[in-house]
């Protein structure tokens, strides 16, 4: 069996285009909160860790930052390089950055920690490449009991019709960096201080229930595989429940699904 890290890299290499046209409409909603929390970017050196399709890198460049973006997916790097032509977009491993110590004023990771096998290593790397006092910001999805409706709907449908113990490689705890006490301890251990958190909500507004299912299938990796690896009858029942669940959220002709997230902020020691 492949490792979690190998699976994530292969999945995002395959699904980069679909992510860019669908899922990124959700994650783009965090760009303004992240960059707003970063303050003035004029003349600052900013590292975008797990830069994905480059939306944040492009926005930071437009605000006057000198931007370096790193991602492990070659297709994501290609999209990001085209979207943020003034940034230095490169292949790289967030857990082992090939960048000098003390070389950035700001480092950000928009929903990147979720996809890393060794997020603690990535935090240490972020602290290493930041100047003393340099600002680190990250976002991560909040758990279903704090309002993440997509994940709650998916888990409920799988538990009702299928099984969670499908043959996937072991993954790190998904909400570790969404729990403030745990995240604070990890950031402190990695070399950060002045740790603070805020919460915000992104919204997904699919046209219909099928578009909601398409988002999961076409532009997520592990969530899609949780469905794909079910027995055929279970897979059919799960997708039917997800479709109906999305439609049940329609009000005044519009479906709205909440994607709440945590915004973490810290300073390198």
UniProtKB/TrEMBL annotation:
<dbReference type="GO" id="GO:0043770">
    <property type="term" value="F:demethylmenaquinone methyltransferase activity"/>
</dbReference>
<dbReference type="GO" id="GO:0008757">
    <property type="term" value="F:S-adenosylmethionine-dependent methyltransferase activity"/>
</dbReference>
<dbReference type="InterPro" id="IPR050508">
    <property type="entry name" value="Methyltransf_Superfamily"/>
</dbReference>
<dbReference type="InterPro" id="IPR013216">
    <property type="entry name" value="Methyltransf_11"/>
</dbReference>
<dbReference type="InterPro" id="IPR029063">
    <property type="entry name" value="SAM-dependent_MTases_sf"/>
</dbReference>
<protein>
    <submittedName>
        <fullName>Demethylmenaquinone methyltransferase</fullName>
        <ecNumber>2.1.1.163</ecNumber>
    </submittedName>
</protein>
<feature type="domain" description="Methyltransferase type 11">
    <location>
        <begin position="47"/>
        <end position="137"/>
    </location>
</feature>
<dbReference type="GO" id="GO:0032259">
    <property type="term" value="P:methylation"/>
</dbReference>
<keyword id="KW-0489">Methyltransferase</keyword>
<keyword id="KW-0808">Transferase</keyword>
<dbReference type="Pfam" id="PF08241">
    <property type="entry name" value="Methyltransf_11"/>
</dbReference>
